[in-house]
Structure formats: structure tokens, C-alpha cells
Amino acid sequence: MNIDVKVPAFPDSIRTADVAKLYVSEGQLVYAGDILFDVETEKVVLEVMADCNGIIENITIANGDHVNAEQVVMTLQQLADNEMPARPTAQQPPPRVNGSENDAVVSPWLSKLNKSLIIALAVGALVILFVLGK
Length: 134
Description:
Structural class: alpha+beta
Number of helices: 1
Largest sheet: 4 strands, antiparallel
Strand order of the largest sheet: 1-8-6-3
Number of strands: 8
Distance between the termini: 79 Å
Shape: elongated
Radius of gyration: 25 Å
């Protein structure tokens, strides 16, 4: 069954918006809740999500296009849950020291050591202030 994906109704008296970002392409498999595209008005950016699992069949918009409220912008061939492969899980990269690609990876042990060191220094500073204050 084909589902029409429409631009949502806009707040207040706004009638048009721009496609800020298109996240999918024709033939792509999407899961219910996946973000399909963003529309941007003068006041708000709205995320449009898939209502069901399926495959994107036809897209009539591109980044930067002007769209109207309730305009059909793509069609989605709905698939049953048993027809869908398992949703891939996102792999999170290991934490980095300064956020740079070239920096060393911070081990969990080192991260815990840094927290312990900071706490010890703070407690030590409080003790010194308390002793000097008397």
C-alpha cells in the first residue's frame, strides 16, 4: 500500500516553507519514526517523520524547495514488520580528548582517574581553606 507523505500544517498564518534538509532518497528503506526531511518557516523548523515502515518510492522535493502546507512531497510503499530487516544500531565512536580526529582515544580507566583526581583536588582545597580560616 502506498502512503502519501505530506508537508505538515504550519503554525499561525504561515502558508509556505522551505525544505531545509532532505534525509532520504528514492529506494531507501525507512522505519517508522525516521526523519524524512526538515521544513523551515520564518519561526520554526519542523521535522517530518515516517509514520510507518517502508521504502521511499517517489520524491518530488529537493533541498531549498518552497513547499505549501499539506503538499504531497513523496510516496512511501508501506511494508509489514515481518518484511523489514532488523533496524541497524548506531555505533558510537570512542570519546576523544579534544574532539579532534588526531587525538588519542580516552580509555574508560583514564576517564575515571581524571574524575577521581578532580574530586581529590577539590576536597583538598576545601580542607586547606577550612584550616586556614580558623
